[in-house]
Amino acid sequence: EKAAPKMKEALEELTKAKEAAKTEVAKEKAKSDDVAKREKAADELAKAAEMQKEVAQKLDKAKQEGAMDALKSKDVAKNLAKDVQKAMAETEKAAKNAMGDAKEATDEAVKDQKDSEKALQNNDLAKAAEAAADAAEKLDMAAKDAAEMVKADKQDKAVAQAKEEMKQADVSEAARRVAQALDKNKEAEKATANAKEKLGEGKAEMDLAKKQGDLAKQLDNAKDKNPEAAEAAADAAKALAKGDVNKAIEAQKAALEGLNDSPEKGAKEMANEQKALLEATQELAKAQDAGNMAKDAAMQAEALVPDNLKGDLKAAEALLEKGAEAAAKGNIQEAAAKQAEATKSLEKALEMLNELAKALDVPMGVPGETALAKADGKSDQKADPSDAKAEPKDSPMPNSKQAETKGDGDRKPDGTEEAALAKLLELQANGGFLKLPEKEREALLQSLGANLPPEYSAMIQKYYRDLADKQKTSKAPLPSSR
Fold it and tell me: Which residue in 94, 156, 312, 418 is a FRET match for 139, CA 20 to 30 A apart?
């Protein structure tokens, strides 16, 4: 009973939110009607401008020929007058839909057309031609203005669509994933540089597979042969050539162990060389792992963004894959080159996403401040259980384009809305709502906002969050779910 006033207040607020959404729908419809009107005006003005241009050319030609006698001919005068009137009719039709600068230029053109018609009626061919040319110029300007307005409408629509999609997909998470990819690729670059350092100055130009193969041949051709070490070194070279870096490392360890145990002359020098190759390969294994993790993060980010924002991420993914492959095969120069290119693509993608995040007023992605998702799905960063908005940051990301279920016919209250709201308020007050699986959150919101268009779910979702914040601030008793 104590919770009843709070429940009533919450339901009243929900009704207000729905009414606000309906008002927003009406505004969007009016905006859509204006866009359609501008598109129609652009087409009509283009046609009117073309017709007026032809009229102006005919009048100018008659003026150049000095056709005063021809004008006295009823047929010629009648034909010219018909052309002028047709152009005027087309312009007047276009003027009804014209807006802004296009409307102003069209109105001026109409005045010139009337002057041209009057001059023609008075057999003043020179003035008629001049006024017709002025009208043609102004209509051409109006048509261009209208076309620019249509172009602006299309751009606005594209930006709005991208922003809406990004709101649904969570631009913050996309930017965070790209920042993670950058961090991991930097780790890959560092490991590759370490591999080069392990080989020593001037030795990194050769790939590890070839150097390992050369050492295997040297061992095989040695006067005091060490067959076990030679075989292991050869196996390591073959594994590197195939890109099996882990198998190569195991074989290199076996070769090094055999050389360390060998009393033969020259074994120590070859052991030192094998050790350098082993350490370089171990660094490249780190580079491969980091590169693959960077690619995974970039792919997760790609799944969160609309198609027109995927380009740089796709490019980065391809480069990261090639860099990891080169590292696994021991090709230091190739790995370093691809990693550097991937960094550029990722930085470009992050800059774009952060600009959008800024426009949407949501958190941006910052390299060096993120923890990459682990293979087991656990995060390095532990969420504060007291934070109502804390979510597992490294869980698999859902696809941004989830299917929406829409019912047909009139939907009427069935008594479940009050219960759903009570459950929502309780979950939000104790920080449980945003920790629910996404499908459960969506189902709960759907039960409360079923009569609203899907595109306004974000608005209602914000209302729910604000309501929960208000609930926590007032520390009011939770509505009973019984």
Answer: 156
- Each residue of 34-60: pLDDT tens digit? 888 888 888 888 888 898 888 888 888
CATH number at 37-160: 1.20.120
- For residue 271, report the phi and psi dihedrals to the nearest 5 degrees: -65, -40
- Which of 118, 126, 117 shows the shortest CA–CA distance to 89? 117
Among 428, 431, 435, 425, which Cα is nearest to 13's? 425
Query: Among 459, 475, 469, which Cα is nearest to 20's?
Result: 459
Contact 401, 408 (CB under 8 A): no
363, pLDDT greater than 60: yes
Q: How many Å apart are CA 94 and CA 289, to the nearest integer?
A: 64
Tokens representing 141 are 């300007």
Residue 449 clears pLDDT 50, i.e. is over it: no
Return the structure tokens found at 231.
């075989």
Instruction: Give the residue extent of every domain in the chain.
Output: 37-160, 171-360, 416-474
User: In Å, how far are 394, 408, 439, 450, 459 from 411, measured between CA atoms?
Assistant: 38, 8, 21, 8, 20
Sorted by sequence, the CB contacts under 8 Å of residue 468 that are 6+ apart come out as 388, 424, 425, 428, 429, 433
